[in-house]
């Protein structure tokens, strides 16, 4: 295993790679010998507008460092456009080996105030986008008997956050999709994993800061750069990795393996349950194992190291 070139000769597609975490993953993929498709529509944080500049700028950075890359500005939210992203890899470099589903937008608002558009647009980019790009790549991975996918999830979905019902639902949905991909594609030698990144980026910069607790959280996030997330993504893409169906989090210099839902306690009544018996017996027995209504910052409450 060559530590310096873990992706030597691989063709890697990174969506939302015009800045932030995606940019750092694309740059590191190029540094590790990959040919990189830098996908980014160049939109605002809310997904508005389009600009070729961000993707082209990252391509230039990769090429100036001696790597090979090509820009793509198609939207992951539309199946045909996602197909064109993969076709860019095939047409330019002859194959596709890895994808990183990183593209995302935000429409933060409280659930009871959320519009249809705010819900639909976030689901289309995050969850549909992950599906669209993964499905477009799948036939190529199946035919060659290899491939790796890394999808960006979030502790907003895994744990919870205020005013992010659309984003949280999409990000938790991505973890279930990733597990299904890992199961369905295992026999073809294809791996699928998720990363929940802690990093200060354009997307995270939109967090509402209206309490001392939120100010402290933002101060901690500013210490965590997108570059800290890239090494794990590169490893998960590499042939040296045999991991699949897992959820990781990266928080500065810490890497976490995140739990997946499993039964933790049960109650049994051989005669079956009535509603009254559930209230009197079952719920009191189960309540000791309830999860509190926490947000991500409550669980990851210590300073990053």
TrEMBL record:
<feature type="domain" description="Ketoreductase">
    <location>
        <begin position="10"/>
        <end position="203"/>
    </location>
</feature>
<dbReference type="InterPro" id="IPR020904">
    <property type="entry name" value="Sc_DH/Rdtase_CS"/>
</dbReference>
<comment type="similarity">
    <text>Belongs to the short-chain dehydrogenases/reductases (SDR) family.</text>
</comment>
<dbReference type="InterPro" id="IPR002347">
    <property type="entry name" value="SDR_fam"/>
</dbReference>
<dbReference type="Pfam" id="PF00106">
    <property type="entry name" value="adh_short"/>
</dbReference>
<protein>
    <submittedName>
        <fullName>NAD(P)-dependent dehydrogenase, short-chain alcohol dehydrogenase family</fullName>
    </submittedName>
</protein>
<dbReference type="InterPro" id="IPR051687">
    <property type="entry name" value="Peroxisomal_Beta-Oxidation"/>
</dbReference>
<dbReference type="InterPro" id="IPR036291">
    <property type="entry name" value="NAD(P)-bd_dom_sf"/>
</dbReference>
<dbReference type="InterPro" id="IPR057326">
    <property type="entry name" value="KR_dom"/>
</dbReference>
